[in-house]
Each structure stands twice: as C-alpha cells, then as structure tokens.
Design a protein that fits this description.
Length: 157
C-alpha cells in the first residue's frame, strides 16, 4: 500500500510540474494526460488494498480498470505529438477508434471482474491477526487455487 501511495504522490507531482512549466504547451498537456491514468490506477489500488469488504475491493478494482485500460490511448496521442505526427492524431476516425477501444477494454475488464472473487483472509503477520489480505481468485482464467496461508500452489494444465 505504501508503494501505491508513493506512486500516486509522484504522479501528482509530475503532472503539476508539467503544467507548471508550460501550461499552454500541447505536448505538456498530452504528457500530463498520459500520466493521469497511472494516477487513477495507483490511487484505486490504495483503496483496493485498504478495503474492508470484498464488495468494496471489487469496486476499487473496477475503478482501477479505468487507468489500465485508458493509458494506451493517451500515450499514443502523446507519442504522435512528440514525434511530429500530430496531424494523424487530428483525424476523427483515429480518435473514435481509440475512444471505442478504451471503452471496450473497460467494459471487458468489468465483465471479467464479474468472474473474479475477492476473498478476505486473516493471516498472522508478526503476531498480528488483524492484518487483512485480499486475494483475487479467478478459477476460470487461472487454474490456481489459494491455500489458507495465501500461497499459490498452481497446477497448470
């Protein structure tokens, strides 16, 4: 959880730095937009790890999917501007294709998360029983089962 918090702080500082340096530059704006999905992803993982119920953990996992499903679109537009191919990014067909692919990926991630089960387990960590560990378990896509200790003895077929 500490790493996700540190990531979020670094992403916020980087976005603020980019916009502070030159607010009017399209390249800075696109770079800030390319970093924003990572901010959403890491921020959602903070709340995912801090969730007390499996239902809340699934909600934050779905919010995180906005980050990991939308970052390729913003990175593509940033690289097109950075490499001097900005005229390609102004074509409406490319914009529509990128937007539809991101929406499709988010919807697909949401549908796949319906088959994912978050399980709250209590483990001993340095003699403390109250440590919550959320384990993502998906038997349809990964032929792995989780033992009571949280270890993953996998049997790949």
């Amino acid at each position: 959880m500490f790493i996700s918090c540190a990531d979020a702080v670094v992403y916020i500082e980087f976005i603020c730095f980019l916009l502070y340096k030159n607010k009017k530059s399209l390249l800075n704006k696109l770079c800030a937009l390319a970093v924003a999905p990572f901010l959403i992803w890491s921020s959602a993982m903070i709340f995912f790890n801090a969730a007390e119920q499996a239902r809340d953990a699934m909600l934050w996992l779905n919010v995180a999917s906005f980050g990991w499903c939308s970052f390729p679109v913003f990175v593509l537009f940033f690289f097109l501007e950075f490499t001097g191919y900005a005229e390609i990014s102004k074509k409406p067909l490319l914009c529509a294709a990128c937007a539809l692919s991101a929406v499709y990926c988010i919807c697909l991630a949401r549908l796949l998360h319906l088959d994912v089960e978050c399980v709250a387990k209590f483990t001993f960590v340095r003699g403390n029983l109250s440590k919550r560990v959320f384990v993502i378990k998906n038997t349809d896509f990964y032929p792995c089962t989780f033992s009571e200790t949280g270890q993953r003895p996998c049997s790949y077929l």
